[in-house]
Amino acid sequence: MIQHNISLSRLNTFHLPSVAERYLALTDLSQLDGPEFRQAPQLVLGGGSNMVLLEQVPGLTVHVQLGGVEILGGAAGAAKGSKSRLISLSKANSQAAVGREYSSDGEAVFLRVGAGVDWNQFVRYTLDRGWCGLENLILIPGTVGAAPVQNIGAYGAEVAECITAVHVWEYGVGARTLLPEDCAFGYRDSRFKREPGRFLITAVDFRLNDQQELKTGYGAIQAELAHLSIDAPSPADVALAVTNIRRSKLPDWFFLGNSGSFFKNPVVSIATHHRLLAAFEDIPSYPIDEGHVKLPAGWLIDRAGLKGARHGDVGTYAKQALVLVNHGAASGQDIIAFSKFIQDEVQAKFGVELEREVQLIGNS
Ligand code: EPU
């Protein structure tokens, strides 16, 4: 049922005041046959964790609440067909997977998860069963359906590495299943981000526990495991290390509104990198290919003197300059104005352009 003039303030992690002209909770796939889904809604809302909402969102907002975790197959005590009691099931689970055989395959476990399931709740569900694959991605806000859109990543892992299929509703076409090679996954990027208004993600298939190979190469994880005196870590141990690192550096949106990294880490040419090294010899960088390196935007903002900076109720987080925070009553406009100020300062000091990672939605 469509509702009118619904507040989205509690449905976005930045805690920004915003009103949806029309609002629909999507709880069952059968709703997709309705006339509303012949074309893309103005906003598809999951956990509201990677967006800046302006005061008015015209048109239709669809709040994806498709639940369900289903084990499609696999070993390691994963009884095929068993369904989570934690999370209610929807018809998302009855869609056929295309082109993949979901039978027992070594230690691998195959799961189908509804798009509206809370990401962190799902990660904990897999860790409770000792499954490996998502431990580095613990505590990322948002939903399962939003995870492939920007290919969420942290501490040396990206969600795309564990995805075997993405089930979508293509507006004007109908239900489809996309294999990873059709999803154009990249750094904080995918086809879903590049073709906005084409697909609504209804469920995601994962392959976990594959090689039991933990990603502990990231320096901060090694340091935290050493600090915890763990030398043969389990997936849950790595998740604990990541939890400790995130809690020490990143604000909890429940208490301090934010949307994680506000900008992408910029990729620059080797020539630009050399120019910067001459002036800032300690600038960190990560090689991308022969001609390019990635620079940490947090370092650039920090070195521009803006870590912990504040304009009214908007600021950068005191412990991680890449995260913009809402200290109380900021609006989407305030966030955008402050982010432009940061972009200008970084451009002036380093000659490097910062690109927003978060989506801007609505009108003020
Ligand atoms: N740095 C500073 N000052 C700061 C922040 C960072 O000097 O205020 C330096 C750090 O010392 C380090 C470098 O910048 O040398 C990189 O910082 P960090 O390891 O914290 O990671 P990041 O590049 O800032 C990225 C992701 C995060 C992810 C972490 C860990 C992007 C845009 N961000 O941050 O993702 O959690 O790596 O893997 O790629 C998100 O996307 O919302 C997010 C939080």
What is the fold-level CATH name, i.e. the topology of the largest domain? Uridine Diphospho-n-acetylenolpyruvylglucosamine Reductase, domain 3
* The number of domains: 3
As a percent range, the share of helical residues equals 10-25%
Largest sheet: 5 strands, antiparallel
Percentage of residues in DSSP E strands: 25-35%
- SS field, number of helical segments: 7
Shape: globular
Structural class: alpha+beta
Radius of gyration: 21 Å
Q: What is the CATH level 1 assignment of the largest domain?
A: Alpha Beta
* Biggest sheet strand line-up: 6-7-12-10-11
| Name given to the CATH architecture of the largest domain | 2-Layer Sandwich
Question: Could you characterize the architecture of this molecule?
Answer:
By secondary structure, the chain is an alpha+beta fold. The protein folds into three domains: 3-64, Uridine Diphospho-n-acetylenolpyruvylglucosamine Reductase, domain 2 (2-Layer Sandwich), CATH 3.30.43.10; 69-209, Uridine Diphospho-n-acetylenolpyruvylglucosamine Reductase, domain 3 (2-Layer Sandwich); 257-361, Alpha-Beta Complex (Uridine Diphospho-n-acetylenolpyruvylglucosamine Reductase, domain 1), CATH 3.90.78. The protein has helices spanning 119-128, 191-194, 219-227, 235-249, 270-279, 297-306, 332-350, and strands at 3-7, 19-26, 43-45, 51-53, 56-64, 69-74, 109-114, 153-154, 157-158, 163-170, 174-178, 199-208, 257-261, 267-269, 286-289, 292-294, 310-311, 314-317, 320-326, 359-361. It has a five-stranded antiparallel sheet, with no helix packed on it. It has a four-stranded mixed sheet with strand order 1-2-5-3, with no helix packed on it. A hairpin with a 2-residue loop joins strand 15 and strand 16. Helix 3 (219-227) packs across helix 4 (235-249) and helix 6 (297-306) packs across helix 7. The site of uridine-diphosphate-2(N-acetylglucosaminyl) butyric acid (EPU) has 17 residues, from strand 13, helix 6 and strand 19.
